[in-house]
Amino acid sequence: MVLENSSENKFKAVEILDAVPNFCCPWINEIVENVPFVNPELTILTETTIEEIPGIKVENLILKPESNLLLIIGTKILQRFNFIRILDALNPSGFVLRGSGRLLEIGKYDLAMDNSLNLLLMKEEISYHGITWVTLNLYLEMNKVEAAFRYMTTRKHVGKILVNIQKEEKQSVFKTSEVLFSSVARYLLFSCEPEKSYIIFGGLGGVGMELADWLMLRGAEKLILVTSSGLKTGYHTQRIK
Q1: Confidence at residue 167, expressed as pLDDT on a 0 to 100 scale
Q2: Which pLDDT belongs to residue 36?
Q3: Rounded Cα distance, 152 and 155, in Å
Q4: Strand 61-63 to strand 136-141: parallel, antiparallel, or no bridges (unpaired)?
Q5: Which residue numbers delimit the Ketoreductase (KR) domain (predicted)?
């Protein structure tokens, strides 16, 4: 997840699993003012502060890059400090955002853990976008399907592993001859008499409402809907009007 403002300054955010003290940096106000999508109620740490906390598990962390250098979470930084890849998780990344933020999901952490997206994010008008990489990493035939699964469990690949189930069948396309039919006039087999009344028992049920529409399309103007419960929902009131 990358949070980006108009001045093209990018910040990274991850989640701390264990409670740690708040380390407030001098540039906290600058981040909150310049990056509208960052939640201000976060623990702010710098790379220097991280080195002073041995064995920390990251929760709410914002790393401010110098000039155009980006600290890539999940690669060198995580390997250096033994951080957990929490940025791959949907809910921790989503709660770092302010209202109307945008969450881009490019990882597979929640898919592997069978996690669901927290609906509270929608309350803050946070939009969720899933991104699928089209990079093809490995192509194998059907007889190598076991090797494909074993290779996938090693988690060394970046991209898709494609297994060819069967070869593409080359078949010519047959065009059917055009058959023209003369138009036939449509006559209603049943028509209602406008001056008569039609009584429908259970008229507010699903079948009753559809039957009422069916009769009105065929000329009925006076319908009597008999019901024991009355108008219960706004849908009933709207349809009656």
Answers
A1: 76
A2: 44
A3: 6
A4: unpaired
A5: 197-236
CA distances from 78 to 1, 43, 47, 81, 231 (A): 15, 18, 12, 5, 61
Nearest-angstrom CA–CA distance, 27 and 61: 14
**CA pair distance 51, 11, nearest whole angstrom:** 19
What is the side-by-side order of every strand in the sheet holding 3-4?
A: 3-4, 10-14, 61-63
CA distance to 40, 64, 107, 113, per residue, from 61 (Å): 11, 10, 19, 23
Start-to-end CA distance of the chain, whole Å, equals: 50
* Pairwise CA distance, residues 21 & 44, whole Å: 10
> Which residue matches tokens 């009925």?
220
Query: What is the Cα–Cα distance from 39 to 31, expressed in whole angstroms?
Result: 10
pLDDT for the residue numbered 208: 86
- Give the chain's residues under pLDDT 50: 1-89
What residues are paired with 129 via a beta bridge?
A: 104
User: Closest by alpha carbon to 54, among 20, 28, 86?
Assistant: 20
Look at residue 106 in the predicted model and tell me its pLDDT: 64
> Within 10 A of 229 (CB to CB), how many other CB atoms are there?
9
- Closest of 62, 72, 58 to residue 35, by C-alpha: 62
In 3D space, the residue among 211, 186, 214, 213 whose CA is nearest the CA of residue 201 turns out to be 211
How far is residue 39's CA from residue 3's CA, in Å, rounded to a whole number? 11
Report residue 168 as tokens.
């593409």
Q: What φ, ψ does residue 194 adopt, rounded to 5°?
A: -60, -30
